[in-house]
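Hey, can you fold this one?
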Amino acid sequence: QPSEVTVRIGQLSHDTDGRVISAEIENGLDLAVDISNLFLEELNAVVPPGVVVPAKSEVLLLFERRPTTKDDGFAVFVMTED
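Sure. Predicted structure:
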């Protein structure tokens, strides 16, 4: 893939406390984009390794908060259509 590509954060879902629980990552390009280890500044999250957004498609990132000693601890899971 080219060194500079753009994906966009689409629809966000929030829990009752206003925390983001899911985010769509949209790819409007004609080529698949590997977003492995991408830091999403707006969400304070890093995409897990191996995540590729298909061409002209999107993936859904699900955020699961887990007990941790850090304030920002959470896991990110990725869902996409087959």
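Residues 8-79 form one domain. Let me know if you want another pass with a different chain boundary.
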